[in-house]
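Example with several molecule types.
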Amino acid sequence: MRHLVRQTIRFSDADPAGIAFYPRIFDHLHEAFEDFFDNCSGTTYAKVLGEERIGFPAVHATAEFLKPLRHGDVIDVEITVVELGQTSFRCRYRVLRDREICATASCTTAVVHLDGLKPVNIPERFRKFLEEHHEVVA
Amino acid sequence: MRHLVRQTIRFSDADPAGIAFYPRIFDHLHEAFEDFFDNCSGTTYAKVLGEERIGFPAVHATAEFLKPLRHGDVIDVEITVVELGQTSFRCRYRVLRDREICATASCTTAVVHLDGLKPVNIPERFRKFLEEHHEVVA
Amino acid sequence: MRHLVRQTIRFSDADPAGIAFYPRIFDHLHEAFEDFFDNCSGTTYAKVLGEERIGFPAVHATAEFLKPLRHGDVIDVEITVVELGQTSFRCRYRVLRDREICATASCTTAVVHLDGLKPVNIPERFRKFLEEHHEVVA
Amino acid sequence: MRHLVRQTIRFSDADPAGIAFYPRIFDHLHEAFEDFFDNCSGTTYAKVLGEERIGFPAVHATAEFLKPLRHGDVIDVEITVVELGQTSFRCRYRVLRDREICATASCTTAVVHLDGLKPVNIPERFRKFLEEHHEVVA
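Resulting structure tokens for the full complex:
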């Protein structure tokens, strides 16, 4: 199952060349990741961090920017889970504009307790919705 | 030859977990990239874009975040050039804090004319300083 | 008439103190301003800039931050137009969370042609929707 | 006494119109505020927050943007303290480019304990350097 989040490329995302500055694309991916939690985990990303004190620092991120994204572009960010370990997982992102893939990316996040940043096992209720969005990569 | 840029992790880089949010690390790498141009190219990054209308959109970026960076950390961003093509090049970054590598990254940038975003050959005077910072990767 | 835009305080908006960093609030106000154009002007903010080459640089901005906003907060940004000049206008913003006012702000924007940044008269079709959202301030 | 911080308008500060997006100016002012602490307080802004758990949330901010700032501009941000209360103070900023004032701003910050955000008296050692930078406004 793929989780889809619709977003808009904002004025503040665009650089003097008129196209989205690439660190801003990673911001968009993270917003999609937050929405994935909010919509699928049974709780919210803010509560997981603020109340459960569990965090998701990125340990690896990679992206290919295939087509320039411009201010005003409406994009769909598609998320799947391509690796699901004991204390980390990797999400894959596709950024589409009118069904054209403009960027692909993946981000591996550790799962840690925020006090001390020590790895913790992915809680079962998160494992469930992450598995539901598992994508087998050829 | 390696180009070194000293930076500070800012309050605005740090997230509620107290560590640098990973898209902000890419912002720091880009600042180092701008300084690399300003210090080594014989011109400035702003003039290259604003006057020559040549731009450097990222086509691929990847990073490993090995150690969390915190608000107040002083870091050295080390840049080398690991690939130098006709119309694109790839820089490699190492982010050090007290000589400890906290992140490594690389970013491939196309070289384009800003009006139309068509690839252009890397101008000779840029090729020169990029070659001077070439690093052979084993 | 008031224009309302619902937003969420994002992870990236929040600082190590767990509350929204104040420049990020101005980002939220600008997003609401963009949506105001997209929803009410008959065109989009991106087209006005990209095609008509008309821009809206801020010349004055002021804000009072009455209550801290936290990651995960859902806010309603309310926009009205409190001054409507020949070549500039001033919007007033109220940021509400569950009907509690958390911030008030105003921003005066010049209306300029993007090539040269010279002031231009507010086009009639913009004047119309701006007038419809006029608020008389006591 | 005025505290001066030299900065550069970055690629990421500039918008599709080629000029600094106004929320980014507030980011620059905050960086100058951090440097003011780092250079004058006898400690660092990061330690005050991270170790002493004292924070400085903005309660009021205002700015006039007199001249557009562009990517590559070198600016001097001048800070003085124009009000010094029991649990809050107000800084005044002037942004200069080649001695021309491009923006003026002021920001009132509360002084709070980060756990609970309750106001605290400005510690004596901070009061000292703030007083040294006091500017009487006519």
